[in-house]
Prior knowledge:
It contains 18 helices and no strands. With 423 residues, it is mostly helical. It has one domain (3-422). The radius of gyration is 21 Å and the shape is globular.
Amino acid sequence: xxxxxxxxxxxxxxxxxxxxxxxxxxxxxxxxxxxxxxxxxxxxxxxxxxxxxxxxxxxxxxxxxxxxxxxxxxxxxxxxxxxxxxxxxxxxxxxxxxxxxxxxxxxxxxxxxxxxxxxxxxxxxxxxxxxxxxxxxxxxxxxxxxxxxxxxxxxxxxxxxxxxxxxxxxxxxxxxxxxxxxxxxxxxxxxxxxxxxxxxxxxxxxxxxxxxxxxxxxxxxxxxxxxxxxxxxxxxxxxxxxxxxxxxxxxxxxxxxxxxxxxxxxxxxxxxxxxxxxxxxxxxxxxxxxxxxxxxxxxxxxxxxxxxxxxxxxxxxxxxxxxxxxxxxxxxxxxxxxxxxxxxxxxxxxxxxxxxxxxxxxxxxxxxxxxxxxxxxxxxxxxxxxxxxxxxxxxxxxxxxxxxxxxxxxxxxxxxxxxxxxx
Length: 423
């Protein structure tokens, strides 16, 4: 690679990093504004109900995502200079996603009207389904693959701003709880429509006739990632959902409030992951050795940053809960203390698995350990929740993330770093 190209790559990486940093700052700051308001207006019970419904609908988001956020990002980054190829990938994936959305709607309707717990708040679940629609319309994988993250930043800001303003306008009392997912979904749908306009106008992407073979290829490409992601949901999204089935909305409210604080803090490091993944994917094809060195530097940088975040949350957990959530959520303090270690642990797992194993083409390996660990987590989570309540649930989440990280590091060392010494 000549100096000119290297300089252009470096400039694009920096631009993408700052674009995504603005996204994550919005994802961090906006909840700091809305979360304290919502938890107080809705109370633990209704806040927990909304969290439970959102967790349920996340299964359909998972199905429609399928794994394309990584597989399509990787393929588009490799063929980013061939707009015809990019258009065929885009068309295949959008058609698959639309079919999955129709399937999801049918399944959602069948479950909502056949299960009493869901039927009592059927309108809430249909409001939450708007997340699925917005997620399909917004091809984030296209923007990441083309390494044009500034559009993601702008569109994300639009969606967050719509939600922020609307929350304070429409959510005035506890009975307005169903507006929360509805308003968030509307913001996402608007951003999704605008993203498609940009894809056509800016990238010159066009919908192309696709064959069954084209769709089958994309499904095969994303299969292992989808399976891994589905297994990951067993110890992430499923936690809130299962907790809601085993306990009540109030307990879910305590749990999800602490979890949202942690997820917001984790987003501070997301720009690094989202920026470097397509870059590493392309770099692997050009120079495996350079890609390995880049991952090593990323591991050190992300590990240091995430450890500082975890330490701050652990030390100031009491203050954070009192300031953001209020006295109603005193039960969330101990949960937050346990969760405080997650930003550091998950960051190391991301670098090892996504930037390492996925980017280097070892997607199938991740599913080998994620699937059994996911099912183990499911069993332990239910047992410990029944015995120790909300703290038992939080402890098992931490245990599982540590286990996943250890396996991710082990396999990345074996398949990437030790293989380098042999070569």
